[in-house]
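Researcher: Structure for this, please.
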Amino acid sequence: MSNIVGATGKCVLFGGAVLAMAVPSQAAKFHVLYQFQGGTDASGPIGGLTKDGKLLYGTTYFGGTNNLGTVYALAKDGTESVLHSFGSGSDGADPEAGLVADAKGNLYGTTYNGGTEDRGTVFKITPKGHETVLYSFCPNYPHCTDGFNVGSSLILDSKGNLYGTTYAGGADSLGTVFEVAPDGTETVLYSFKGGDDGADPSAGLIVDASGNFYGTTYDGGASDLGTVFELAANGTESVLYSFKGGSDGENPVASLILDGQGNLYSTTYSGGSSGHGTVFKLAPDGTETVLYTFVGGSDGTSPDSSLAMDKKGNLYSSTLYGGNMTDCGGNGCGTTFKLAPDGTKTILHAFAGSDGAQPSGSLLAGKKGEFIGTTYNGGGSTDSGVIYELKK
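Model: Predicted structure, token format:
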């Protein structure tokens, strides 16, 4: 494995464990930057955004010329451009994850489906919108030992190698960690076995300065409720934590973040004392601390996005449901929230449907303390999702 560009820098640590506290409402300044129109425009952004220069880039699961998803750009003045519409199937289909950019402005991403065997792809798009499939999964179908169904974003190293996870496939059909070289050669770095080592990773990877990867699996582990794992630079996999269910959380679907002291942070989609998900911290010695337990309803439920941390140690993310419980069929349209180091959680915005619904992609932090995100649905009559901005 090569040395990775952009390892996470130092961040302020949390204090002790604090579970669900009163949730004050502190509406941030919210406005919609772009409302997707569906059809040939785009529809259903799931992954987060990437900023390169003055443009924001992302993907949508639906929409485009063939309703198989798009790669799009959003200019500062709110003008949206579709850079690529996934079309023939062989070029990929249904991208779920965000993008990563290299120094030349080329974008790299994954598709969950499509490719030569409709099992997903790794692709590259130039700044002018020319798409190249770097790798199509499962070329020896039905023997998919290389993995398939990629829902994770990629990380890029200084030599141009790309790293990610597949939800399925591998030696035991329970997912993989993979590398794709610049020439398109794919290497399986680890195949999950489905026992204590974990199974079905849906989130992307992070990496430390020594080249060790960290990630989560939705299933597997000692209780088959998901894990946090480390894949060392020599290819050795270690389970750092197995979720037990109940108060410690279960079924993580989001990527991790890493602070300067080696602590890992993320969310679980479900579990916790109320069954609606958690925010957790994992210390280097493997001690898990639940920083917040979602109680459902107006508090929010089902967090499936990774966290962002500011210089003061505040964490920011979103919940897929909850918030205003009169909206979105009584399930709530989702929330964005702030979690302070003392465990106080503040709802920054509760979506109403007309301004977006089901925020899924991770928040992109700006230089002035703002955050930009996407919602999978909502946004007026098209119900095709939005790009929004929150200012504190």
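Researcher: Any notable elements?
Model: The first strand starts at residue 29 and ends at 35. Residues 1-24 have pLDDT under 50 and may be disordered.
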